[in-house]
Design brief:
This protein has one domain. By secondary structure, the chain is mostly beta strands. A hairpin with a 7-residue loop joins strand 3 and strand 4. The longest helix has 15 residues. Strands 1-2-3-5-6-9-10-11-12-13-14-15 form a twelve-stranded antiparallel β-barrel. A two-stranded antiparallel ribbon has the order 7-8. It contains three helices and 15 strands. Helix content is 12%, strand content 54%.
């Protein structure tokens, strides 16, 4: 389907949805949920252990905070904050003491800061108009070998459209929504090799967003499945002209070669998160987390071609940054572990 047809179908859906028939929940008090989970795994081996095995310590701390309420017969407000951070440390041979092992500095394995707020007007139609705000970041950015940056980048999105609750019960929920939104990315990068100086930059884009959130008990309520599927199809990008200039400079340079990337930002971004949680006891559970991400070009990538038209070294440095934001294949993440869970509310 072409973009024109897709947008035309979306517009028709937006116009006609409010007059169709959806169930309205009765007004009630705030429904709060606060859950903390700590997943741990550990192994260690003595210095004379045969086989070359090395121990490791892996921990992940998760926090999930929810606040939902049907404020009145016409408006539903849902808020969610997800926090996660984890590290892994492994035993390594100590070069200063042959035959001995030491624990290496921990590496980050999990990092998430996600805040989402959705207001939905429950007008009794087939679908409900909605407006949403989302903030996405991480506690620590380790992507640059020069150093680490706190809360970098910060991505903000505002969307509006229609939402359709297919299942809406206390323990079971499936809601899909489609709309048009704007995204802003605020980031910092190092400007010297020592990591003492940084500069800030921002980009923005806009496009069509589709999202489905699901919470479903499985296997006679022994397993809880939660899923969040997000698809964003951008139609404009503030740095598109800079990417075109970059491609032109690379094509004209005899010292720097590479494929054209100016159209990479037009590909849809997909983020599909799935969690299966099985409670062994009220405080002990087994968690399986599976995530698939497709982001062909990271909108938070700095594209600055200043000086690249006269200096091949500058152009090469710009190319390294641009290619650092390119992922032509899907990214897959899977974790499984036994965790300690405590429900505060």
């Amino acid at each position: 389907m072409s973009r024109v047809r897709f947008f035309a179908a979306t517009a028709a859906l937006l116009v006609g949805a409010a007059s169709s028939g959806a169930e309205t929940l009765p007004p009630g008090p705030w429904n709060f949920g606060v859950t903390g989970t700590l997943n741990l795994s550990q192994s260690a081996f003595s210095d004379n252990w045969s086989g070359g095995d090395k121990g490791n310590i892996n921990w992940v701390l998760n926090g999930d905070f929810e606040a939902k309420r049907q404020l009145n017969a016409k408006f539903n407000w849902s808020n969610q904050l997800q926090l996660a951070y984890g590290q892994t440390s492994s035993q390594k041979l100590d070069p200063a003491s042959p035959g001995k092992k030491r624990w290496a500095a921990p590496d980050k394995t999990t990092d998430l800061v996600l805040l989402e707020s959705v207001g939905r007007w429950t007008l009794g139609g087939w679908a409900d108009p909605y407006a949403a705000f989302r903030l996405d970041s991480q506690f620590q950015d380790d992507s640059d070998p020069i150093g680490k940056l706190l809360f970098n980048p910060v991505k903000v999105a505002e969307t509006a459209g229609i939402a359709r609750p297919f299942i809406q019960e206390e323990e079971r929920e499936v809601i899909s929504r489609i709309g048009f939104g704007f995204r802003q990315s605020f980031a910092r990068s190092f400007t010297d090799a020592t990591g003492d100086a940084t500069e800030s930059f921002s980009t923005n884009d806009g496009g069509v967003e589709f999202q489905t959130d699901a919470k479903l008990p499985l296997a006679d309520d022994r397993i809880l499945y939660t899923s969040k599927l997000q698809v964003f199809w951008p139609v404009f990008y503030s740095a598109s002209g800079d990417l075109e200039d970059f491609d032109a400079l690379v094509a004209a340079s005899g010292a720097v070669t590479g494929e054209a990337v100016a159209d990479f930002w037009k590909s849809p971004d997909v983020n599909w998160q799935n969690t299966f949680t099985s409670e062994v006891t009220s405080w002990l559970n087994v968690n399986l987390y599976v995530q698939w991400v497709y982001d062909k070009f990271n909108a938070a990538t700095k594209v600055d071609v200043t000086g690249a038209d006269t200096d091949d070294a500058v152009l090469q440095a710009v190319q390294n940054k641009v290619l650092g934001g390119v992922r032509k294949g899907g990214q897959f993440k899977q974790t499984i572990g036994v965790g300690l869970t405590y429900r505060f509310l």
